[in-house]
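Annotated sample (chain length 198).
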Amino acid sequence: MDVTELTQHDFVADINRWVSGLPSLIDVGCGLGDLLTRIDCPIKIGIDAHRPYLERRRTDDPRIVPLTMDAREMPARFLPGGVAAILFLDVLEHFPYDEGVEILRQAEALARESVIVFTPRGWFPQHNFDYFNLGGETYQEHRSAWNVANFERLGFTDAIVYKAFHGPGNPSFLRAFPEPGAAPVDALLVRKVLQRGK
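Output written by the structure step:
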């Protein structure tokens, strides 16, 4: 696996580099849609299991189609190869590990070009916390931890590690690690290029 470590944290620019030229993308767990507005893709479908996030989304960008849907429902709602890329942005850690692996497998069957994941690197505890204060605590609980090796075993080929990404400026980090001087948690951005997209 090709691994790059960075101290700058502009992960959206790196996502855009990976989706450049692709016609469509599903953003799984899009929340209020802020980051989706910054993704350079003509057709963007934002799905989230917690409807209040979509109802209070911070954008009326006509290129974004919001859908209330659990990630596990994607195979019943989308056709294989019907979208170019699927993005999991701070989502995978909310599922137990084995379930996350199955969701990634399903995403690979639905996307034509690539599956992209952004997640904390390693364990980042989060319990009874909703970053948006919209009653989504159960959806935002962290249930698994992911490292480069996990994705390499699943056939992902590209990884960017953002050193010290989650730190004292993050309310969830302060709640999880209240002691002064707690070490920041890195973040991972990984990509799997699919065979049918080559």
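Annotation: The chain has seven helices and eight strands.
Annotation: The helical segments are 11-19, 51-55, 74-77, 97-110, 137-140, 148-153, 171-176.
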